[in-house]
Amino acid sequence: MTVADYNNCVDQHSDGLYRFILKHIRDVDTARDIVQDTFEKMWRKVEDIDAAKSKSYLFTAGYHTLIDHTRRAKKQGSFNEVQEHKLGHEKHYSDLKEILNAALEKLPEIQKTVILLRDYEGYDYAEIGEITNLNESQVKVYIYRARIFLRNYIGKMEVVI
């Protein structure tokens, strides 16, 4: 991969990678840091990467960087351990996007990842398998299970709207 190919990859795929990471962690600053770390990893191996496979490499590296960050964050304490129900009142209004985001947060990490890659980013099963180190049938199973969970969690659309 040449420097021009790398710069083209940054221009074309940085927004998609940022959205993918942000959907997972819901923290703008951390998502930016992970995207930056991913591009740094890609730059260090720029000679070894085929330009045609740069998008796949980028999302794979981004996914693994996200996993590393998540594992490190689990070892640290969090302010999220505060019991929110004691601090305020319950919301009575919720729109569809909020319901979908809440449902996505309830999914196991691998199911959330494959759903985001498939339905939000448009990857096919084989590409998702390369990114997550799963075979194609495992990807299909995780997507199916995630969609069943989301359907059961959300319920009928008429009730939500």
Percent of residues in helices: over 70%
> What is the CATH homology-level superfamily of the largest domain?
RNA polymerase sigma factor, region 2, helix turn helix motif
Determine the mean pLDDT: 83
Unreliable residue stretches: none
For this structure, the CATH topology of the largest domain is: Rna Polymerase Sigma Factor, Chain: A
- Strand-pairing-aware structural class: mainly alpha
Report the β-strand fraction as a percent range.
under 5%
Shape: globular
Element string (H = helix, E = strand): HHHHHHHH
Profile the largest sheet.
none
Distance between the termini: 49 Å
How many alpha or pi helices?
8
Note down, in words, how this protein is organized.
With about 160 residues, the protein is mainly α. It folds into two domains: about 1-75, RNA polymerase sigma factor, region 2, helix turn helix motif (Rna Polymerase Sigma Factor, Chain: A), CATH 1.10.1740.10; about 95-155, Arc Repressor Mutant, subunit A. The protein is about 70% helix and about 0% strand. It is built from eight helices and no strands. It has helices spanning about 5-25, 30-45, 55-75, 95-105, 110-120, 125-130, 135-155, 155-160. Helix 2 (about 30-45) crosses helix 3 (about 55-75) and helix 6 (about 125-130) crosses helix 7 (about 135-155). The longest helix is centred in the N-terminal third of the chain and has 23 residues, at about 5-25. The radius of gyration is 18 Å and the shape is globular. The N and C termini lie far apart (about 50 Å). The model has no long low-confidence stretch (mean pLDDT about 85).
